[in-house]
Amino acid sequence: MSRLILRHFRPHAYDSARCSRLLERYPHGSSPRRLFSNSLRTESGHNKWSTIKHTKFANDAVKNMMAMKHSRAIVAAAKIGGTDPDSNARLYNAIEAAKRVSVTKKTIESALRRAAGLGSGDGKVVLENVTYEAIGPGASAIVIEALTDNKARTVTSVRTCLTKQACQLGPALFFFDRKGVIRIIKRTVPEGSEGTPSVIDFDEIFEHAIEAGAEDIEQLEPDEEAEGVEAELPVYQILVDPVDTAKVAQEMKDSYGYDIKEMGIEYVPKIESTVELTDSQGETMRKVVESLNEIDDVQDVYTNAK
User: Fold this and answer.
1) What is the pLDDT of residues 209-239, one digit of tens each?
2) Where are the domains of the chain?
């Protein structure tokens, strides 16, 4: 009989009616991978360390560098999956990431226009997606995704950055799962209005996520960079099969009224593989992630460190 695995959840949430609905959804003979949790951001290594790259835009030089980096990501995403962000989860995430660091609308539109004509001939630049694996402080695992027109240059930059912090390239991908990731909020106060948002029952969000096709859902802390009412709203992270990312996000938005903050395909650390770092190891990890993100070609950095 199929099993639905539930972890870190309130016992009262699973009455007989709910269990019946779940079993109807996943009948005998199917092999669903459904793992649900209710945990805070600090339990997720990737969430904790990935926020570093959103907090260091202090001068124009850095802002210009980040604009170029996000522009390249948009071009690559559009080239792979088309220029419609509603059907291209990777492009949607690239555009939203650019907006979060104030990349101008003009720059984003220019990147989309370039994507339409990007090719290998006539002197045009060919961008390749590359993934590097590394061993970090405290035997933690690091995965680095880059977008480059010169792989030799990029790997040299990555290796140099790692070596400076006593880290090295090495096998790490088996500590992660490749997942579609959707981060949502639920507004109870209209956008632009004043007022205190009311609490949304997690059981309700759980039900919606199941119906939409989620594999895992967790409650994160409110976005530290958000303003106004949104700063008080918890963020919910949904994990899905990568091919279902856009479909599930659209379902959560259209059928249940959630706002999509981010969606994309990410490396998510396996629960059993997460590593607890000491204070000094954590400081080293911070330096590693920051310096990797300063490399022009690097797009994302993931770790299994808590």
Assistant:
1) 999 999 999 988 776 666 666 667 888 999 9
2) 5-32
